[in-house]
Sequence to fold (202 residues):
Amino acid sequence: MRLGILGGSFDPVHYAHLLMAEICREACQLDQVWFLPAAVAPHKQNHQVSDALHRVEMLKLAIGGHSSFRVSDLELKRGGVSYTVETLRHIRSQQPDDNLFFIMGADSLRDFPTWRQPEKICELAMPLIVARPDWPNPDYRALAALVGPERAEQIQRSAVTIPLMQLSSTEIRQRVSQQQSIRFRLPRAVEKYIEANRLYRG
Fold:
């Protein structure tokens, strides 16, 4: 199986997350894409996030009806800081015959060498770099230093570009706290879940 892994806080999930997953699925002929909400994102250790139950339920509502999308609570069950290398190592041990693709934004490439064991991440899975029209062209030189020029070129050839969507979970949370509309920024079912559970009210 060709399996895409998309991690994040998903607090809340919105249409840009879903579009990224769908474009990667289609462009790279992925059989499945797993959404993995982080217990604690390494770069957000000082940020308060919504309860894991809410983030999982919103994801399930958002991807409902898509046969190739799944929600995995692997990182939530493990707890603590959610390091990508540990997640990929676990998935590889459970599904050794699958081809893993780790979906990451092109803006993360700059800091990728500072992640925990980035060379091991590239060994366990093919990094699937997602670029946007408003971002600078991805700089693959850091990858070449980690994995060698041949593997870096392979990763570059697999890169995907998505349409510009100016959406962020931070903005959605702010709009809810200010009693502004979030309609058409995320699936209607997720919007109603946020409303019913009075999330992000401050």
Q: What stands out?
A: The chain has a mean pLDDT of 94. The beta strands are 2-8, 32-37, 69-71, 99-105, 126-131, 160-161.
